[in-house]
Amino acid sequence: MNQKKTKTKTQKSAIPLWRDIRFWHIAGQALMILAVLITLAVLWDNLTYNLERLNLDFGFDFLGQQAAFDIGERPLSYERTDAYARAMFIGILNSLRVILIGIILATLIGVTIGISRLSDNWLLRRLAIFYVEAIRNTPLLLQLFFWYFAIFLSFPPPETAINLLGILSFSNKGLDIATLHLSSEFSALLFGLTTYTAAFIAEIVRAGLQAVPKGQWEAAKALGLKPDLAMRLVIFPQALRVIIPPLTSEYLNLAKNSSLAIAVAYPDVYSVYSTTLNQTGRSVEVILLLMLTYLSFNLIISLLMNWFNKTVQIKER
Length: 317
Fold this sequence. Notes:
The relative contact order is 0.11. With about 325 residues, the protein is mainly alpha-helical. Helices cover about 70% and strands about 5% of the residues. The chain has helices at about 1-15, 20-55, 85-115, 120-135, 140-150, 185-210, 215-220, 225-255, 270-280, 285-310, and strands at about 160-165, 170, 175, 180-185. It has a 4-stranded antiparallel sheet with strand order 1-2-3-4. The mean pLDDT is about 90.
């Protein structure tokens, strides 16, 4: 045995380096890293050259300067005398409000519509199909204009607002829920993103439910479970393993699509950053910060969904 091991070791050591596949794996990755570094160096050199040619500086010192512009909607205190960094933080919070609430509402609506797509009720099933096809095949920007200009701005003024059961109140200034006020801009963006994303989630849910073997549906019926219990306890948990990966992509799309807020004058992160760029002229720095912000949003969503995906996977023993 020892002789055999010694022989194998001797054969491995006798392989020329240029024929050793392990060497080429390492060399390939090293070459790729070198290519990336060279590309970054060339881009940086090009950037500094053009900035010098245009007599512009590169740096983030402008973040401490006075912003001198208003933000129409702000969850925290903000004044025109505050710094650009504060204004950008307000924009980030405004975007997070829309993204978080939008994800929750889109999930609830999408799951409901997706289950309705498989309903035995003819009318309910047809209505769900109509919703999905009508929303999914219309541009999101057009839908945002519809919610903002055709719906919320056409409501009466606050003095004659439409009141429902003393809980909901609609006016051209926005939506009031009990003591909570949502502006027209925020409401239009939230409704647009929610209904649009829900249509895609509905199709993902439908596909996930249909991916569950028919034997599981029949087994649930054989156990005497009512349809709602069978769906909640047997079918839907199994469908989650198929639903979650594409669902993550829809959440990421919602986060990125929130940048269309500028179309309805909602001061999200993109809108605030754009104003900062126009005032300071620091286009490279502001765009880098904007990319970093959206990258952070999406990485956080991906990490949370990957964690959730692992919790619903079948664990083999």
